[in-house]
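ingest -> validate -> predict -> emit
validate: passed (alphabet ok, no gaps, 785 aa)
predict: started
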Amino acid sequence: MRLKWITGTIRFATGIVWKKRMSFTESPAKAALCCEEGGEGTPPSFAMYEALKDSCQNNATYFQPDDSENGQRLYQGFVTLIDHIDTVWPLVDHVRKVAPLYDFDANSPGNGYRSFVSVVDSCVLHGLKLSRQVCTGRDALLFRKGYFVKEVESCGQLLASLGTCLHHLHTLLSWAPPGELFPAEQHSPEELFSQADTINQYCFYGRCLGFQFLPSMRGILKGISICMAGFSEAYYSHGNLISSVWTGGQYLIDPEMRARRIVNISQSASVEFCKAFWFLAESEIMKRVPSLMSSTVAVNKLITIPPEPITVTTTEGKETTVLPPTVHIGLQGLNVRLISVNKRMGMAGEGSSTLPPSDGIVFHCHGGGFVAQSSKSHETYLREWAAKLNVPILSIDYSLAPQAPFPRALEEVFYAYCWMVNNFKEIGTTGKRIVFAGDSAGANLIAGCTLKILMAGLRKPEGLFMAYAPLLVSFIPSPARLLCLMDPLLPFGFMMRCLKAYASPNGSKKDEKQGTNQANAVSNVTTPLDSNGFLKVSASQEGISEEPSSFEEVSPSDLAELQAHKSGSERRQSSDTTISAASLQSEHTATGVTPPAEKCEKYVSEFLERYVLDSDTESEGRRTRSQHRISEAATGIMGAMSSRLAYITGSNNIARPTQEDMAVRSNLDALIARSPSDEFIFSVPRDPFLSPYWADEQLLNRFPPVRILTVHLDPCLDDCVMFAKKLKKLGNVVGIDVLEGLPHGFLNFSLMAKEANEGSKLCVERIKQLLDVDEAPPTAENNHL
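emit:
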């Protein structure tokens, strides 16, 4: 016994000495440095992998004589990790060597290959940290073998799945010439996924969730994942919210159960669930956050633009008329949000002000996968932008898919731009400099809108700022797009379903019928479809769709017909002042929520109102209602406990998206992970308005200066890099920033994480450069990451 104690002490001391000899950071590997051996702040990659092998071997030797079940599982777990390292190293080493060939330039390293190398390196760092924890604590009296067994096995599964992804990357390398991130020939995702084993997605959403992101983001991502799993219980519980919360609480303490739930939600939940979950950002609680935590602004109002023809002047001095959008959902008013840190002269409804109009204006489109969110949910960072830029921001609340698929949102953004150029004074600007800004889906829309402006011969903006933009809405495989297989915010199934809802109207037709008011969905103008239900493509225009454009000459009979449609019932009513045929709405005025949105709001409000807050402001009423709900909740919980204890790992069913309720529902936790290629069951038209990457070079050559900001772990990273390369090749002014360790959509977390806030500040700097505004107040903070 004494000999064993001495041996253990020697091993412990050896581990401490070894740990001091080779020090590695616990933060994720930096993609910008992962391909530079011995780069500043990054240890040589080979030494890092060898250090993990040595540590695993040390632990394997220690636990090999342990006859207990957990001891043998730890031994096997560390041996398996060593085997995976030997398999993964040559694969990742080859990708590491060629990845720099795909960068935009030497000053902006970033592409999907680099990202995957950094993800694998981050996994190795995670495993090294875990192995050292075991090494230093295994002799302690309270060492938890059962806990570390699950952690080590989870890390091994993670490394094995990344090894499968690396096989896919080698296939992609063989499909494209050096420097090209998209295949040179026609290759389908099904073909890619058939080249290797099915990827186990469960390991990405369990104990290792968020390992590749910055430490400040991991807690946020874990909380969102737990919220997603718990919310799915409420969404699919058919009214039994108490029972669903009882089950949903287990996702907090059971990572494996959470992983199964999230993966199966991604594979099976409908786009309506995505909309409902993301609608949480529009809940009463979240609506109050910007006013409490963000910068104070003097102007924050909704403007409803009525569906009337707009006369605009082209760059050649000719007047032409732009029709309001009618495709898919007919004539409707369009909401835009005006945010300004100051009241300015001429602003309608703001009284008198001595501050002159701003020379600049930011025209903004929000993200949300084309199916969710609004300018309100993006107000957390828009307020900060308005304060730091000191110019008004006009954010567009375009219609959302699947009720309003492509090209409805694009036509509304173009229509809003035409309205803006006719109403500069009313929104507090001279319009001297216009900068487009958008994130995610919004970035796609402003790029498409720029194409429409150039084709129409209108005044183009002075600059474009795009954040993590999907610029190739197609299912051409690329290395960065494989990142969505492990993305907590944008899971693979979510991304596929959102793109299908927006880009493939025929494929979303069944979902569109659910909860849609058919009377409001009738349109006099429909998008021409081919025999397969996809948008027609004109060969003469190299893929530009022939759908009716909102920019065309209007005859007197057309104007008469439009006037006939202008009934009060078709507009969003407001009692506020009218600005040039546009009505102002207060924050609490109805904004014309569509029936599907009402359904989403119903789920969210019931969930939050019953368990989180009481929206009533009267204290006495709140106390009475709270007491009633506490009593109701207690009764419900007792009843739920009796039925759930015997089935504690159970889960409510999620129906696959169909036109009607499915007759047979399958239990999510009983589903087997299937190949991601199952989601690729529809086609997308090659339309430059849908995918600006396909735009004609003559149009792209006329683009204003472009600044792109994205992140290394973004599934849309390759879209941004390749689009920037294309503009650079044409001689355009273009720059790209790629940030470390942040997720897609990080701007929405700018109030929660320091690095996300610094990323938002960098956005401000890039927009300021495009505005070239001297009046913007300087900031003391360092805005460079």
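Residues 213-785 form a domain with the Rossmann fold fold (CATH 3.40.50.1820).
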